[in-house]
Amino acid sequence: MNAVDKVLPPKDVDYTAPSEADQVRELLGRAGLSQRAGARELEINERTMRGYCAGDKVPRVVMLALERLVDLQRRVS
User: Which residue in 28, 35, 48, 61 has the most C-beta neighbors within 10 A?
Assistant: First the structure.
């Protein structure tokens, strides 16, 4: 092992940030909601929610609303 190998992170570790689609799916899961139920809660079209989960640009207000749904679910549980 040389000096460079001691400084660099392991090659088998993924350091990429999750995509917005990954974040939406994660938040829906943490809130205990399907894509359909999440769309209903946010009063948006199901196709729009599917788009967000597939990689379409997600408005910040939608991310904030999903985070709020997770918080509300936590308080109920």
Answer: 28
